[in-house]
Amino acid sequence: MYSHGSESLINQAREIQEPELQKFYSRLVKLLQVKELSHEALDSLQRLQLILFANKFTKILPAELQQKLLSLLSSPAEQLQVLGSAVLRETLPPSGQELNFSEENLSQLNTHAAALLLSQARSRADLSNLCAQLIRSLESRPSEGPTQSLMFTLPVLNTVFTLSPECLTEDHVTLLSKKLVDWLRYASIVQGGGASSGGFFAGPRSRQPLPIAELDGSVSGDFFTVLCVGQGFTEDQWMNVYSFSMLRHWLLTHHSVSNTAVDADDRSEVEGSVVSMVSVTSSSSRLLPPKERLREKAFQYCQRLIEQCDRRAQKKADSELQKACLVEAVCILDCVCAEDASMVYRAFPCMKALFGRLSSDLSFARVLLPIAQFYLNHGEMDTVDCERVWKLVFGQFPAELFNDAFLAYELLRFLRLNLENIQSRAPEFVQFFPNFLKFLAWDSPAVVEDFVDLLPSLVTAGTAVELLHTLLDLPCLAATLVLQLRSTCLPIADPNSRGLLSLEAFRNPAFRGLFLFLLRAQAGSGDTIDRLSTLHELLAEAADWPRVVRCAQTVPVLLHVYFNTVVKMDDRKLLAHLVLVMLERSSLLLRIPSYSKEIHRVFSCHLRRLCKLHPSLVVDQSHELLEFAGATANVYNKEEVYTHVVWVLGEYLSVSSDSRCSVKLITSCFEAVEAVLFEITSSTPPPGTICPAPRVITTLMSALAKLASRSHDLIPRASLFLSKLRTVSRNGSVAWCADEEDLVAIVTRGEELWSLLKAPGVAQSVLTPPAYVTTPRWHRDTSVAMPLQLRALTNLTHSQ
């Protein structure tokens, strides 16, 4: 974790003895008594911070040193503020000398002092006292003392509200709401910092304050906002900026504080009435209660910001600032409308106009998401048609901006946080799952957790089959997205674009349909494509691309989530279809090292689980299962899936599992298994393959014995094969089993089954036991004597 040099310093700091430490304290006090601190003093402060940090127990510094460190917090040099705060945060204040910023110290409040102040709040009571002191400090007028600390007071208050919202009282809410109204709406409209109107003969007396300007350079004609510019800013203008930065959090916080009866009456049933809207917008807004007045001023402020964002900024950085302010303004309007529904009818015209202006420019995508949130939260109230919004957010954004990491995070977060609301307001979002999965294909590690939460909501009876195919083809989608970007960035004539066969195939009209299917925005155009093997050949060189490999690693995780969701739907027709898909797709996967094995392992697990929950699936899909089990090549290519297919056939192909199971079906299955078992035990493995695993052979033998025990006419055939197997093994090594121990285990298993089949009645009871034997509950059944006998045996075997 640490480098060797760092570990050495930390060990030295831990091993310092108390006498040496006291001498160090005394020397540091002397160094701090000088006005101009030397480099030695700075080095000693850094060493002290390391000593305190490295020790297990928090120490108490001498009172004199404590005072010297406190004085550093008001030093003009920020480096000293940082060091002083860092050291003090590692210590306990002396008893009775806890840090107190109640009066004179509040004038010295800065970022680093605030961090120390919060770190020494030991309980909620301390936070409440701190909150009360800070809010009282806001009441002081500029003439009563320095006002610079006000700019640091609001951030500290914001942190306190985050840590402990319950420390707020109604008086606190009222006072701070009044102050925020004053700072937001009534800040100075002239530039600060002694801005001059210019001129060669301009002197101190001729300097006139200049008006604030807009981002496009024109003179501002309205109240000051965060988007106003000037050569300098006054104190109340800085407070305007700080107030706006904490406004949304404050609205959310004070809304959670218990509301009085007056508040409830103010937000009574007249939510959309004309009377309510007129009263709010009239000049009588000053007569509103403080919280309602703050909402009104916040509404006006945000509308002014949105109007200011129409102006063309002269600097690129200001353009980015406009986008950030738009996001915050829309979020604040959302909060305001959530608290006062009458504001919705005033806000929606502005929202519609803003959406219409920005929707054609995808560079504003991160602004459009909060607008979509606004439509989602309040669209029903104003009966707005949201279809355009959802087509843009669910359709165009993922399709064209899948490689924007910030948008991916925010869009997936939007889906997760609003999932229930989206399912009721925009149920068509499920159809856009091919689009959403582009985020996963492009940057799997960053978003896989989001999709673990989202995937169950995308699984429906109509999308389940197509979604399974899409998940299995996710590495192909990752490769296609890479090719799409390369095709856009590299012209056809560029020599760097040549040499990639997959890129040439992507540009080839003959294969265009394959790639377009992967890049589709919505579901419903088909579960999969016919030429999957062709697609996999075209993308063969992408198998080792890092983005494709990382994507393939996430697919098994999502498949487990998918099958766990499908099982809960309890749709037998759908489950039967999925069994066929698993058999088909086990051989149609992109050839990535270990990818096929992982998918086969997932298929095997859930095939067994599905058949256990619904044994009738084996009879329903018996033709396809028998066809799969009868293909000897599957033993070598799909060992995991093949083993489990044979196991479920032997386990559940019986009358006890499904009354439709006939002797003819059992015989057909027996013959298929017998043929495969005979073929692999009488010949060498095909070239390029290894010997079949012992588990495959023993599973085939067990299935053969189980099927024979259910149709006694088949017992002689099964016994003959098992006896031949024992005879062959006596001659020594065999071509189909390379390990002698494995051969012994296979022969032993064959002898056990052969012995069981000598007694058909016993064989059926052992190989296919009834349910009450495999899942006994005798120890819990109060109607039988077993619980009493168990308790008696327990008492006898335990010493008294």
Automatic annotation (TrEMBL):
Residues 1-280 form the AP-5 complex subunit zeta-1 N-terminal TPR domain. It holds the Pfam family TPR_AP5Z1_C. InterPro entries: AP5Z1, AP5Z1_ARM, ARM-type_fold, TPR_AP5Z1_C, TPR_AP5Z1_N. Signal peptide: none annotated. Residues 450-796 form the AP-5 complex subunit zeta-1 C-terminal TPR domain. Residues 321-438 form the AP-5 complex subunit zeta-1 ARM repeats domain. One of its GO terms (cellular component) is AP-5 adaptor complex. This is Adaptor-related protein complex 5, zeta 1 subunit. It comes from Nothobranchius kuhntae (Beira killifish).
